[in-house]
Amino acid sequence: MFFKDIIGQENIKHRLITSVKEARIPHAQLIEGRDGQGALPLALAYARYIQCTGEKGDDACGMCPSCKQFSNLMHPDIHFVFPITNKKQRSKPICDDYITEWREYLNETRYPSAESWQQFLATGNSQPQIYVHEAHEIIRKLNLKSFESEHKIMIIWQAHLMNTACANAILKLLEEPFDKTVFLLVSDKPEMMLETIRSRTQRLQLRATDSEAIAADLRDHQGLDTQTANAIAGASGGDYLKAMELIQLNSEQELFLELFIALMRQAYARQVKNLKEWSEKVANLGREAEKRFIAYCQQMLRESFIHNLQQPELNYTRPDEEQFLSRFAPFINEHNIQDLMELFRLAERDIAQNANGKIVFFDVAVQVIILIKKGNEMR
Predict the structure, then answer these.
(1) Total-model pTM
(2) How far is Cα 186 from Cα 193, in angstroms, rounded to an integer?
(3) What is the radius of gyration, based on Cα positions, of the chain?
(4) For residues 217 and 186, what is the distance between their CA atoms, to the nearest angstrom?
(5) How confident is the model at residue 25 (pLDDT cuts 50, 70, 90)?
(6) How far, CA to CA in Å, does 336 sit from each of 116, 339, 350, 371?
(7) Residue 251 pLDDT level (bands cut at 50, 70, 90)
(8) What is the distance between the alpha carbons of residues 25 and 252, in angstroms, rounded to a whole number?
(9) 272, 366 contact by CB (below 8 A)
(10) What letter does residue 170 receive in the DSSP assignment?
(11) Inter-CA distances, 274 with 256, 264, 324, Å
(12) Structural domains for the chain
């Protein structure tokens, strides 16, 4: 991973690069941000840049012995800590038990995430964590002399998953670090970490990735046309993984758009019988797809409301969605938008609590009849 591989986050990149050029590398840093904002890739690119011994400007050279070792994730002075389960039935489970899987995962994953790592490990219902035994490994490894580089680097991914005993065990290292030791902690839930850990780090908070940067990447690497790339980037909320998920769900979204249009048209025409059949069709999608459909409806309602502002740059829709919204949007206005959003929020809650989908969606359909009428009358 190089800095050039990370989408956006230019200010953070500049800050990290400057710390190396000016030889002011903090001994403990906490990179806070969602997986889709590139938190772990930034830590990896930074570690490579620190250890690079070749000619480097604003990125590692990629050619020196250090960079070549890092490309295989086998640099002797860079160590990894990450959440695991004890599926291998070790008496003292540590990350090195899974280092082969870890290297394979990182080599095939551009933007790692907690969810995809768990799927890669096939952990089932077991929740990964960083066990107390890992603290002893951290201390042991950092006690060793550097093999090839000036610095020893310890990357701790999903640092909030260190159990309390593990976190307490490394406190002294953070307070009194070994010379030329760098801790890079990465977390998307820093509030779950011990305050004593957070207070001993220099914190870097990532922001949502610029939508233009995501759109450019989608055009260049995913082959999307400009309008589709802009729509997906806007809907991603600055999260690259969310953008990739939206691409994968493109065919599903075509079905969702069809169902959304049917709901709104039949509700406007007060076709109760058809809406009963509609609710049964949606309920047959399955619970997870039902939840995704509800989220899609909420997104379309937001886009409809924003469409009325007549500022196209604020809308992030595909061409087929825009075609429908251009006619439908006036029915979603300040008189019904809040009630509609609350209606779907409650539906999402009920579905998550295993309520009967047919009943939930038929109730939604009936309420939409009332709310569309209310919005139409107040236009």
Answers:
(1) 0.69
(2) 11
(3) 25
(4) 24
(5) very high
(6) 38, 5, 21, 6
(7) low
(8) 46
(9) yes
(10) T
(11) 17, 12, 20
(12) 3-207 (3.40.50.300), 250-377 (1.20.272)
